[in-house]
Target: Competence-related protein ComF
Amino acid sequence: METLVKQALDFLYPPVCLYCRSCLLEEKNKPFNWFCQNCSILIEFLTFEDRCHYCFESLNKHECALKTENLKVFNCFDHKSPVTELVKSFNYNKSKSLASSFAAFIVLQLNQLNIPSPDLISVLPLTWQEKLFRDDLNQIVAEELSFFLKVPFQKILKASFVTDVGSKRNEIRFALKSQNLLAKKNILLISLSKRTREEWVNISRQFDPHNIRNLHLMQFLV
Model:
């Protein structure tokens, strides 16, 4: 019966490519579930070519903020990629299948960049103020990635707003809950959006470099 219901829904509301909106029912060999063949060709993972191996920013940009820090940052895609439509859809439809797509993309990028397999997956959490207005999409994806890789998920950071005295603007600061259970682990943090250089440094300095093995932050889009 479930199969018949799905067929009926596909007939009434045919699935479309998230990027160009063309119908997907007629396509048999599309590489990615949410995109047609033509748009799938446009999906390219970012590489280390012409990018810093610490902060993943262009080598033509200013001096790296993470060269002397514990944290290394990498990204999957830039903002011009068709995958940006996947992020927009996820904001409205927090389905398991969409979360699984994010997890699959992350696994492929981990492999392509030769990032050490994580022993622990966590997130950059929302502040309590942010939680009043939106769901924590980072956590939904991180939990799906944890299930995918059979690696534990744990919330190890907390976030809060602080006011910068000089600029008088609110900034997010992260703090580590505990150094316990992190010894000699490869830790992977998840954030669907790009964080600031100041946030990178703040995150890095929460971790004892003599306690952990590796610390990576995956920003899905840059």
